[in-house]
Design goal:
Strand content: 25-35%
Number of strands: 23
Number of helices: 7
Structural class: alpha+beta
Helix content: 10-25%
Order of helices and strands: HEHEHEEEEEEEEEHEEHEEHHEEEEEEEE
Shape: globular
Oligomer: single chain
Amino acid sequence: MKKILYIALMAVFAACTPNAVDSTKLFLTEDQAQDLIGQGTLLTLQQFKDSFMTEQGNYLSDTTQYRTRTYLIEGRDTSYLFSIDTIPASETPIYIRGRVTTDDQGGNFYKTICIQQVFIDGNDTTQEALRISVDAGSVNGLYPMGQEIMIRVDGLAIGRYANQPQLCLPSYNNNIYANNAEQKIGWAAGRIPMAIFKARTQCIGLPDTDKLFYEQMEIQDFTKLLNQFPKAKAQLQEARRWDAKLIKVKDVHYTGEYFESNGNVSKCTTGNPEDDTNANVFAPTTTNIGYPQGRIIADASGNKTAVSASEYAKFAFFYLPGADKNGVANCSDYEGEVVGILGYYNDNGRYKPAADDWSISIRSLDDLRLYDDEGQLWPRIEYTK
């Protein structure tokens, strides 16, 4: 009987075995992608922003108000740090495409994807980039780093959140208990529900991280970029072109410092990061406010910018390179490359954008390639009580 039962069970399991997944239904070939594009319109990422993202947005009205932190007024010239432009649904599809540059496994890109589009002209390589706000955890399980995707964007929206352009849908914040709630209640760029995003997004080919382009920059390339523009509005518009780029900065080190809210620089402390918001780790607590924590890196000329991390990242309570329970005196001993996503985040309404509005968001600790004089990689030390 046991033998017969065993054979019967094997037959049942065999009958329940699903058919192999047809990869052609999961990943488009380039020819298939071109067939779809031929039935509609393909825009580059910058063309998409230029075509649909206006300064005020088309969602603002007397009854549909943005949050009050939206407005930056310089004389009679008003800039909008928050905006929403809805994109009308069309019988003729409108597409964008790009390769995923982010990875949420480290917890530092929660419900966010960044994509880049690379252009090669002889020896000159450039990139365009865009943020995408998706209402799903572990979204990189479906769209891993290095995966090229094509998105149908008509019927969605493009907006700015703290001046950062992103593919989105309108979202209303009515949290009256939020910190500075009176400045935050209102409409802003919100996340696209996962079901909608999946229905509009197709993968092209297999993931290939070797095809990602890391644009090499100096810190001053972006922190001093906006000085050439006399008005804040022009500065904000230029920053939108740079936001979300995948970059690499070389010959830098952590300083053991952070930017205060007024732009001043202070030294990190050695307290418990569970209650010390200025502790010498990547992202100590914000006491549940949730803003990204920045820790300063500098080059040999003293140019500084912040490396940004979330307190919910898996590496949040790891000491900065060269830091330990005794302080930050050894941070400058580790020098090298930092790679990540360039961000320009301005939600404070300052008339003149400042250097500390810029930051580099790392995807994991592997984005820090910092070594001592003997060529040893910085040790990863997690805070313990």
